[in-house]
Amino acid sequence: MYGPSSPWKGCARTAGRAGGYDVTMEELEQGLLTQPWAWLQLSEDSLLAKACILTDKGYAILLSDLQHVWHEQVDTRVVSQRAKELNRRLTATPSAFLSHLRDLICTLLEGSADPKGAIFSCERLPDGLTVRVRSELSGLPFHWYFQCALASPSMVSQHLIRPLMGMSLVLQCQVRELASLLRMKDAEIQDYQENGAVPSRDRLKTELFDETAFLDRVMTENLPEACSIENGKPFAMKLQDLYVAVTKQKFQAGRKRQGSGDSQASDGTSSNETDGGLLTQPEQQSSAPSLSVAETLNMETSLPMQRPHLSKVKRKKPKGLFS
Predict the structure, then answer these.
(1) 105 contacts 53 by C-beta, under 8 angstroms
(2) Contact 221/4 with Cβ under 8 angstroms?
(3) Phi and psi torsions of 133, nearest 5°
(4) Is 144 domain-assigned?
(5) Do 137 and 92 form a contact (C-beta atoms < 8 A)?
(6) Which tens digit of pLDDT belongs to each residue from 117-168?
(7) Which residues in the chain come in under a pLDDT of 70?
(8) Do 205 and 123 fall into the same domain?
(9) What distance in Å separates the CA atoms of residue 9 and residue 104, rounded to the nearest whole number?
(10) Are 61 and 142 in contact (CB under 8 A)?
(11) CATH of the domain at 95
(12) How do 45-54 and 58-64 pair as beta strands?
C-alpha cells in the first residue's frame, strides 16, 4: 500500500494523559493528525484507521466506520498495567510491548493480509469499540485490546471535516489551473493552424476545450460514483497523499503561530531534546508543502503529455485544415 517511505514506518511518537494536558499530549495530537488513514477489513467490519505509537511514551489510535469515530490514547503506565492483566506469563518493559504493538499495527495498516501472524477482531459497544489482538511475543501468546471511546466533535472536525474541506479547495484549484492550461494550449494550436501547420496524424486533432461542457459531463458521469463512498476504501486508497499534505500544512501553520509566542521557552525544554528526532520529522517531510501538494495532484496525470508533431508550411495557408 505504501512504499519504503511509508508514513506508517515512522509511526509518529505519542504520549499518554497522566494527570492533565501537557506538552507531550500536544505532540501526540500533532503526530496523530499528520498520519494517513488506512482501510481495514476486520471480519465483517470495515474501518478507517490511523495510529501513532511511541515506545517510550504510549500510543494513540483513531477508528471510524463513517458513522462513528472512536479514539484511545494511553501512556506507558496504562500499557504496563493492561499488559500484566492480559499476559501474566510475559514479563517485559512497556517499551517492549509498545514496540511489538507498533510492528503489528504498522503491518496491519500497510494492508498486509497476514500482519505477522496476528489475529485482529473488533467488538462494537453502545459507547465504544474494542479491537482485540492475538499474537506471539518471545514465543509466548500475547493478548491486547484497544478500548476506544467515542471521539469528541472537535477531534472529528480536526481529523476529518477540516482536512476534507481543505482537500476540496485544493482539488478545485487544480481544476481551474488545468482549465487555464488547456485554454492556453488551444490558443497555441490555433496560432500554429493560422500559420499553416498541420498535424502529422489525424488522430492527434482535438476540439477546442469547452470548460462548461467538460464540467457538466464530469458531474453527469462521475458524480454518482464519487458520492458512493461506501466504506471509505476509495478515500483511503487514493487520496491519502493529499490528506497528509493538507494536515501537514495545518501542522506547520500551528507550529509557526505557537513558535512566535514561546520560541525561547521551547528551545530549552528537556522534552524537545528527548523527542527532537520525531518532533522535527513532520517539518522535514513537509518543508515544502506546496511541492507535496503538487506531487499529489499530479499523480493521476504524471505521464507527460505528447505534443502533436506539427510540420510548418511556409507562406501558404491551406484551406479546410482542422475543419
Answers:
(1) yes
(2) no
(3) -130, 135
(4) yes
(5) yes
(6) 899 999 999 889 999 999 999 889 999 999 999 999 999 999 999 999 999 9
(7) 1-25, 113-114, 261-323
(8) no
(9) 11
(10) no
(11) 2.170.210.10
(12) antiparallel
| 3 state SS of 148 | strand
Residues 195, 251 within the same domain: yes
- Give one DSSP letter per residue of 257-311, joined into a string: HHHHHHHHHHHT-HHHHHHHHHHTHHHHHTSSHHHHHHHHHTSTT-SPPPPPPEE
Helices marked H in 76-227 — which ranges?
A: 76-86, 94-109, 153-156, 162-194, 211-227
The pTM score is: 0.69
Residue 105 exposed, middle or buried by CB count within 10 Å (0-12, 13-18, 19+): buried
Domain tally, the chain = 2
258 and 142 in one domain?
no
Is 214 domain-assigned?
yes
In a domain, 316, yes or no: no
Q: Are residues 272 and 286 in the same domain?
A: yes
Asked whether 64 and 160 are in contact (CB, 8 A), the reply is yes
Give tens-digit pLDDT for 242-279: 999 999 988 787 777 777 755 544 454 444 333 333 32
Write out the residue range of the structural domain in which residue 68 sits: 7-155
User: Is 313 part of any domain?
Assistant: no
